[in-house]
Structure formats: structure tokens, C-alpha cells
Amino acid sequence: MSFLRNSLLAAALVVGLPAAAQSDMSAAERAALHAEIRGYLLENPEIIMEVIAILDEKRLASEAANEAAIVTDNGDAIFDDGYSFVGGNPDGDFTIVEFVDYQCGFCRKSHPEVRELVEADGDIRIIVKEFPILGPGSELASRAAISTLISEGPEAYEQLNDALMALQGQVTEAALDGVLAAAGVNVETVKAGMSSDEVTRRIQETRGLAQALEITGTPTFVFGDRMVRGYVALAQMRGLVEELRATN
Cα separation of 184 and 178, whole Å? Predict the structure, then answer.
């Protein structure tokens, strides 16, 4: 109700007098003006929707500007942390960063579409941030993925990333063993490295970055300098990349 009340006040300013001018009016004059404004709005309710649309547009623009500033302030940690997986075209003219949790249903849904976008475009650099937030299974999966990246390299990481995203249900120790074996990595080496200080450091730093970016869910993307929270369909991602390329 407060938003609607603010919208009505804004509408009053559109069709009435500024607040400063109203302060010079008598109580009777103000009452008459308010009655006139009320009558006008009742006769023309579409104005309320127009004002709400204008306010909403301004709010979205303000939020986008604030998020772009946050991205700029944390640019090095987002785009060049020195440890996150970098795929696609490393020299591409456009970068997408994705914060993922392997037990997130929308991450799993998004995964093949992100891959299709990157492969079809050919000029996109994709960075994956391991951000386990959905319980012990998520932590297991991310630790295995990071350990694989450290010990086996980016190609093995990418294969495991695909396999974990294709996994149905919860990630358990048994399920993870099967996925690791199917991905062709050295299971013993990867599992031995999962509890290392380096793996822990990377997860903690990514969590710190997520806090700075006010990320509370997955998937969360950074397209260029724009934050995108939640699942985005392939067609929308393509449109966003095209839009941001044209404006940068």
C-alpha cells in the first residue's frame, strides 16, 4: 500500500501543485485541491498506472546503476581471481561469470543452455564460481570440482562440471564416487585434495565475493557489468549479450 500511496502522491504533483506551493494555501484551499485531484484520478485511473510504471522504471534503473558500481568495485575478484575455471574463448570480447551450486535445479536447467550460448557464439569467455549453498552435498560437489581443477586441470574440471550438473538427486559420497569415475579423473587424488586448505580458501573467497555482490541464490550471473539473478532462458541470454555488446 505504501508504494501505491507514494504513486498517488506523485500523481497529485503531476496534476496539482508542488508541495511548496500547497504549503502557502489555506486548509480549505488544500482540501478543495485534494478533492479535485481525487476526482480527476477517479475519472482517469490510467494515470495511476502510468505513474507506477515511471516509478518502477526509475527504480530498476537505479538498481542497475548500483549493481554496475558493485561489479566495478569488485572487478578483479569477479573476472581475474586467478583460480576460478575459465572456459569458452579465453580471449573472447565478452565475459560471463556464473555462480553455481551443483544441487541447484535451475543451475542444472541452465547449464546446457549456457554451454550452447558459449559454443555457438565463439567469442565468449565463461568463468565458473563454485558457490555451494544448498547443504553438505553441494559442499562435497564443489570441493571435488575445485580439487579436480587443481590436480587434473581445466579439461578434467569441465568434464566433471558437466557430469555433476547432469546428476539427478542429491550429491552423496556414493554418487560422487560414481560421477568422478565416469568423468575419468583420478578418484583417489581428487578425493585426497578435497579437504585441502587451498580448496577451503577458494570456497571462502568466493563466498566473500558473493556477499559483497549481495548474491544469495544460484544461478547468479554477471554479464559484462550487469548482474542477472536467477535462471535466464537461452534466447534471453543471447539478447542480453547482443544488447551489452552494442552498448559497450
Answer: 10
